[in-house]
Amino acid sequence: MRGGGSDGPREDDWLAEEDWVDAPTEETRRSPSRRRLPQRPPGAPSRGLIILAAAVSIVLLAVLVAVLQGDDDAAGDPAPTVTPTETTAAPGSEAEPSLRLQESGTLSEGDSGPRVRRLQRALARLGLDVSSDGVYGPGTTEAVRRFQADAGLDADGVVGPQTASAINDALAEGE
Q: At CA 145, angle to CA 142 and CA 147, rounded to 5?
């Protein structure tokens, strides 16, 4: 070591140099470079929780929109639907298909479907007051009872083979 009165670093004082801290070493050259991700502040929600909350919000919004759009239809009476097999021609016209009823099985209050609709159209053609909605309700039961009474049958409101045959015969006479 040299003695001297200079205020700067001494030549043999290698710790006094500032460049040695930043200089690459053998260890830093071999280790893979890793980027440190920023730490989220304490108490902040995780990314997964934020995504879940956003997804739930979107689903709730879609349900709300569907409910609000559906309220318009629920406020009024539902529009009647016309099936492709039904005709809009007046009863008794040439365009209406045959209303011949199936004479096997029975139809009674609580039944519904195309067989009931055909029965209702047949009763309407015979002049009875009944709606053709395809549901065998109290109105259809009453119309069947009136027909049965007029035809001399047991007026029970149930369409069995005898009542179906009598309706078919009455329709054939009217044509």
A: 110
